[in-house]
Structure formats: C-alpha cells, structure tokens
Specification:
Number of strands: 19
Strand content: 5-15%
Oligomer: single chain
Largest sheet: 7 strands, antiparallel
Radius of gyration: 31 Å
Number of helices: 27
Structural class: alpha+beta
Number of domains: 4
Distance between the termini: 42 Å
C-alpha cells in the first residue's frame, strides 16, 4: 500500500493530468507552454469531476471518464507529447524541481516508510475532505438519502449539501478510486502532488524575471515550499493548496498572454478552466484573485486596441473610410468570440458553484466572518509571507536566537522583494508586474475584511508571490554583469533565502505528527466486516472514523455534528454510563477502544470481535433496554448501598440485577516518579519535551502474565522497560485529539509478585519524522493477561442483591424479564 500510494499514485495522477492538459492544448490551438500542461490538466479534471458529480447518476463513472479524457488527450496530442518528452530530456531542471518538490512535501510519510498523513492532531478538516471525496464519487451531489440522526449524514449534509467547495475533493476521489486506493492513504500524496504541480507555472514566472535555470530551480522550490505553505501542506489544507496551484497558473497564463489572447476564440479555454478550478476548490473567495488576473488582461487588451488605433490613423489608412478590412471591427469580433468561449468553458467547469451562487456566497461569508479561529490561538504574522519561520510550529513565534535569525532573514527577503519589484518594472514586464501587484492588493483587501481563520489562508496564497519578488531581486543583482560585487551579493542572498526556507521546513518536518497506520487499517477491516449492519455508535473521539466506518452510518461523540443524544462536550469520548439505555437501543453495534479502565457497554450487548485497538459489541436480538443503569464508584461498601437502592425499584416478576465487575488494575504512580525537571505537564499528562528517562515503581499482588498498558500521545520513539528489561519501543501512537489520551495495545510480560520498576525513556535526536512531535505520557497500568475481554457479568434476583456486594463493579443494571440473560 505504501508504494502504491506514495509512488504509483502520483505517477498515475501525473499521467491523467498530462493527458487532460494535452486535450485542452489541442482544443485551444496548441499554445500551452510545456510547464503548464500538468496544472491546466489538473484544472480540466476538476471541471470534469465537478460536472459528473453534479449529475448524480453519472458520479460513479467519474474515474473512468477522467481516464477516457486523459487517453483521448494523449491520442490527439501524441506528437505534442513526444515533443514535450524530448524537451524534458534536454531541459531536465523543471522535471527535477517538480519531483523534488513532491518528495519534500511528502517527506514525513516517505521517511516513515508506511502509508499515513501528516495533518494528524493538527487539523481534522482532512477527515471531512476524505469523507466528502468518497461520498461525491459514490453518490454525487444527491443528499436525499442521508440519515441525519448520525454524524456521517450530518457532516455530509452540512458541508457538501450546503455548497461547500469540493473541486479538490472530486479530483482526489476520482483519481484514487481509479486505482482502488483508500482515500485516507492517498490524501497526503495528493496534497504533495498538487503542490508539486505548482512548480510548472512557478518555473515560467521565475524564468520571466530573468533567472537562469540553475537559479530558477532553487527559486521555484522556495516559492512553492516557503515555510507557511509547507506548514499548510503538512496539515493537508487541500483547498488552499489546489487554489495556490491554480493562482500561479493564472499568473503564468497572464504572463504568456501573447500566445493566446490575440488568437482564436478557443485560446481562452485554459484560462477559463483554471478560473473554474480555483472557484471549485476554494469557493467564490477565489473570485478576488481571479478578478485581479482578468483586470490585468483587460488592461493588456485596452493597450492593444489603443496601439491598433494609432496604427490606423487617417494618414496611414489604406482605404477611403479609414478602416482597414478586418481591422478594429475584426478584432472586436474576435474578442467577443474569445470572451464567449471563455464564459461558456467557465460555466461548465464550475457548474455546481454557479448552480447555487447564494449557497456558495453563504459559505464564503461564513468562512470570512467566523469567530472560530480553528487551531490558531493568535493571528499569523504578516512577516510569515517571506518564507522563513524558524520554529517547529507555524502558529508560534520563534524564540531566542531563532527569533533574531528569522527577523534578519525576513528583512533580507523584504529588501530583495523591493529590489525585485523595481527590476520587473525596469524589464518592462508590465503584465507580470501588474498581475503580482493586483494579486497582492486583492490579498490585502481580503485580509482587512476577514477574521483570523480566513486571513491565514490569504497569507498562505500570498507567500509564493512574495518569494518570487525576492528572487526577482536576486535576478537583478545577478544581472549586473559589470559589477562583480553585486553578483556575489546576489548569490549570497539566494543562498540565504534557500537556506532559511530549508531550515524552516526541516523544523516543521521534525515536529509533524503522523496518523497511526495500523489502527486505521483495523477500523477499515471493521467497515468491511460489518458493512450495512449499522448504524454504529463509535465511542472514541476520532473524526477520521466517519470515513473509515462510512458503510456503517457512524455516529460519533462530540464531533462538530454529533448525535445529540450522546453529546457531552467537544473532544470527549462517549461515556456509555451517562446515556439512557433507551437511546443506545437505536444502535445495533457499538465500537469501543480497548481500554480496561473504561466501562463495557450495557448488558444488552455482547462482544462480537476484538482486535489490537478496538472491540465491537452487538446488541442481542430482541433485547429490551435496561430499566435502570447506574455507574458505580467508591469503596465496596458505597457500591453495596447503591446496589441496594437499585434493587428496591424492582417491582415485577422476572426482573434481574446485572453487575459488570471492574477489571483488576495495578496503576503505576507517575506522580511519584523520577524524571527530568524540564518535563512539564499538559492536562493530566507528563510532557516528555526532551530526551530523558522516567522511573517509577509498582507492586503486583500475584505472579503471572500481565498486560502493560500505556496511555498518552506518543509520536517519537519511546522505550518501555520493566526491571531494566526492554519490553517495547512505542512510536506513532496518537489519538488525534490532544484532550483524550491514546491507549497503546497491551504488552504482555511475565512478572513475579511484589515490587517492580518501570522506565519510560524518550530517545535522543534523530532525523525520523515526528521526532519533535507530541510526547505526552498520561498513565501506565497493568491488568492480568488472562482477563476475560467480554467483561463477564454477574446476575442475581433483586431479592438477593447482597450477593453482588463484596466486589467492585463498573455499573449495575435493573433489567426486565424479557430477553435472554447472560
């Protein structure tokens, strides 16, 4: 799966984009520069997938229609394709840069050597995009059959049923479905590919500012992968990354306007498709940057018409009427035809957006005005657009020497950008200068009118332009052929820009958190095993479960849209003891994490399956909900009194009391442990912020094989030992929610009765991904390895309730006479 998603998938997606780009190139007059074929092809596939999913009956055919379009493009553009291949063989820099950009963008997953994604614990929006991509390709934009009583139905309805931008999602879904790949593992490679596709238009722009290929290569890398953009790639902001590729492609088409603006009417097709793809991916907010590009083209056309009128003065007219045949009137007709074809292509490319403009406007306004800043505690700094941020988190300011170095590098980039702006004007590259100026002004206007969340997106989309301007300054210095010092300074500035971005990205790479592969593969197996047998109540807080259990009509705890009957607070897992038995009766299946500390489901459920991470409980056929369900805490005496009170409510023949015995548990007292003083606390957990060792003792009541359980958020490698003997190395065990500890699968070890010592060691620095990620230890405890995973129940008549006294219980129930008793 790793090779299929990380290597085969991007190659297949590139082939689809090249084929679609060649088809558009042929249809528009064969003018596309080679560097734009992939990004224009991606825009074309977005337009196609938007159209097919809008026609819901055609949605399942989307992957195959994408393949047909690509094969057709390769067929009709075969000669052009061969020319491109020969050109790439001669000029290898652009291809090498694109491949390197992909490898850097996917570096955490590639270094881990397993399918995963790096947005884990940072932003759960990627769960929504996986869910939406799957639903749209399977069902199209038909939401009539959704069950809105559960989280799955609510998420799909409230997002995609309300004109949420889905252009990136349909491209992801269509391309991954074609290869039969799980979207959860194709998601990060898709984001890396989309970002790499932006290197083509960026290459064209870098060459336009006067950079030689050997300098254009680092310029493209730093413009496509500046710190802020790289951070958003690691958190898989698929809408922004797709929009960024389309934005840079618009700029490249504006700069190369001489190739198509004065030609036939079909020349407008690529520009229109890119506009439509941007609107489909980001929503109507993309219109601000689209208008900037259109405005520049309008100025170019106006200047062209004015120059044409000057050439056709009466003194120079060749006809008595002063109007040359095919002159101004002919140009006007060609312009009208050009605009008409462009508008038609734009209408088809983003049909779902135009079909519900009021809804799209509502979504754009909601995003722009939301008071919810997501994972941003404070607004991002404007200086982050200059590509350098020497901190492992884009949300936090650098400190100490890193802060000073960041300020110096940002100041250097700013000076270079000002010099670059003057250089572009001096080159008389007015279309490029106008596009950069208009686009930055549009970004400034947007940032002044939106709240924190949307402002951050604006900075992300602006950062490549700021970096391009800085590299234009480098080009100005390098072009001073008679001034050796200027060329030396230019080379030093280039190295500083490249080094600052590389170090910034390396820090972000080091702090990334990767999704736990094995746990999600286990969830996927449950979806296949129990498909169609839902709805299922999923008790863990993990929004990715909505995708992995998509065939079970999953309801989860306290997502943004949870089942109201089980909601208790965002981020908290379901406490089954707090839910009325009659409410749970709506769920024939309950999926829980393996956690001996948590209560087992009510007596109406029996254990159907147990894996390394999860348990599946099924409701017994015909079983009625319990008459009463009470969680028990405290001493045995306190619990005995509570059992007696419940028994007093029995008033019908055949009623029974059912108790769930608590697991035998030995806790390791972490609060009395020896550990480095610099380790702080997060909620109830101990933050292992630096390499070091924790030592704690515990005492076992009897000998035997015991399961050692570790709870926390552990991304870097942590070594677990008992009595000096290493029993496990733990890494990549994350829950996806920093508020709720993850439970690592139990580790069996044979121990004698009496006192023992456990050590937890965080290893030293390494180049492995996520070694600077989350490392929080919440608890360590032990249970007998031979404990019954079914949590065997005890049943007595109400009159004999004292028979339950003397033990410890998770809960006790009063059940009726109908239904099989355990």
């Amino acid at each position: 799966m790793f090779l299929a998603t990380a290597l085969l998938y991007p190659c297949a997606l590139a082939a689809l984009c090249v084929g679609a780009g060649l088809a558009v190139d042929r249809a528009s007059g064969c003018f596309l520069p080679a560097s734009l074929v992939v990004s224009v092809g991606a825009a074309t596939l977005i337009g196609l997938s938007q159209l097919t999913t809008y026609l819901a009956w055609l949605a399942p055919a989307t992957p195959f229609l994408m393949l047909v379009l690509a094969l057709g493009g390769l067929a009709v553009g075969w000669e052009r394709a061969c020319t491109l291949v020969r050109a790439c063989a001669r000029r290898r820099w652009p291809v090498a840069v694109a491949a390197l950009a992909y490898l850097l963008a996917l570096a955490p997953v590639l270094a881990a050597g397993r399918p995963s994604f790096s947005s884990y614990m940072a932003l759960a929006d990627s769960a929504v995009h996986m869910l939406g991509a799957d639903f749209l390709i399977r069902h199209g934009q038909d939401y009539s059959h959704l069950d809105l009583r559960n989280s799955y139905g609510q998420f799909v309805h409230y997002y995609y049923g309300s004109s949420y931008p889905s252009g990136a999602d349909t491209l992801l879904g269509g391309s991954a479905f074609l290869l039969g790949l799980p979207l959860i593992w194709a998601f990060q490679p898709f984001n890396a590919f989309v970002l790499a596709s932006a290197t083509g238009p960026t290459w064209l722009l870098a060459r336009r500012v006067g950079l030689a290929p050997r300098w254009a290569a680092p310029a493209v890398l730093t413009a496509v992968l500046p710190a802020l953009v790289y951070a958003y790639e690691l958190i898989a902001s698929v809408k922004e990354l797709t929009a960024l590729s389309m934005l840079l492609t618009l700029g490249a088409l504006v700069v190369s306007h001489r190739r198509w603006l004065g030609g036939g009417p079909t020349g407008a097709i690529p520009f229109a498709l890119v506009l439509g793809a941007g609107a489909s991916a980001l929503g109507l907010a993309f219109g601000a940057w689209a208008l900037a590009a259109v405005a520049v083209l309008a100025v170019v056309l106006a200047r062209s018409f004015r120059a044409d009128r000057v050439r056709r003065t009466p003194a120079r007219a060749s006809t008595a009427g002063g109007e040359r045949p095919g002159g101004g009137a002919g140009r006007a007709r060609r312009l009208v035809a050009l605009v008409g074809v462009g508008v038609l292509a734009l209408a088809l490319a983003a049909l779902p957006t135009w079909a519900d403009v009021p809804g799209a406007l509502r979504v754009a306004r909601a995003i722009a005005s939301t008071s919810n800043s997501g994972n941003l505690r404070t607004p991002l700094r404007v200086t982050q657009v200059f590509g350098v941020w020497l901190n492992g988190s884009y949300k936090l300011a650098p400190a100490g020497g890193a802060l000073l170095a960041t300020h110096v590098l940002v100041a250097l980039a700013l000076v270079a950008a000002l010099l670059g702006a003057a250089h572009i004007v001096r080159m008389r590259a007015f279309a490029l200068a106008g596009w950069i100026c208009a686009t930055l002004l549009a970004s400034l206007a947007i940032s002044r009118s939106v709240t924190t969340w949307a402002d951050a997106k604006t900075l992300v989309l602006s950062s490549p332009l700021a970096m391009l301007l800085a590299w234009a300054g480098v080009a100005a210095l390098l072009s001073a052929r008679r001034v050796v010092l200027a060329r030396v300074v230019g080379a030093l500035v280039a190295l500083a820009l490249l080094g600052g971005v590389v170090v910034s990205d390396a820090l972000l790479y080091h702090s990334s958190n990767l999704a736990p592969t094995a746990r999600y593969e286990e969830l996927a197996s449950l979806d296949a095993r129990y498909a169609g047998k839902g709805p299922v109540l999923f008790t863990d807080f993990d929004e990715y479960a909505m995708y992995e259990l998509r065939n079970l009509d999953v309801g989860g705890p306290n997502f943004i849209y949870p089942p109201t009957a089980v909601s208790a607070g965002h981020g908290e897992p379901v406490d089954l003891d707090r839910i009325a038995p009659s409410v749970l009766a709506a769920y024939p299946l309950i999926v829980t994490r393996r956690d001996p500390v948590a209560s087992r489901p009510p007596s109406a459920y029996r254990l159907l399956w147990q894996g390394s991470y999860y348990q599946v409980w099924g409701r017994r056929h015909g079983e009625r909900p319990a008459l009463a369900h009470v969680a028990l805490t405290g001493s045995q005496a306190v619990q005995c009194e509570a059992i007696g009170r419940i028994a007093a409510h029995a008033d019908a023949p055949g009623e029974r009391l059912v108790g769930a015995p608590a697991a035998e548990l030995v806790r390791v007292g972490l609060e009395r442990s020896a550990h480095p003083r610099r380790w702080g606390h997060q909620h109830e957990g101990l933050v292992m912020s630096t390499p070091g060792r924790l030592t704690a003792s515990f005492e076992l009541p009897h000998a035997g094989v015991w399961d050692v359980w570790v709870q926390g958020q552990i991304m870097p490698t942590v070594r677990l030992a008992v009595d000096g003997r290493t029993i496990a190395s733990i890494a990549g065990q994350l829950d996806g929610n920093s508020l709720v500890p993850d439970t690592v699968p139990p580790i069996a070890v044979r121990l004698a009765a009496g006192r023992h010592t456990v050590t937890v060691t965080r290893q030293g620095f390494s180049l492995a991904p996520g070694e600077g990620g989350s490392a929080v230890l919440d608890a360590v405890f032990l249970t007998p390895a031979d404990a019954d995973p079914r949590g065997r129940l005890r049943t007595v008549a109400p009159s004999a309730w004292q028979g339950l006294c003397g033990g410890r219980y998770q809960w006790v129930e009063l059940v009726g006479s109908i239904g099989a008793r355990p």
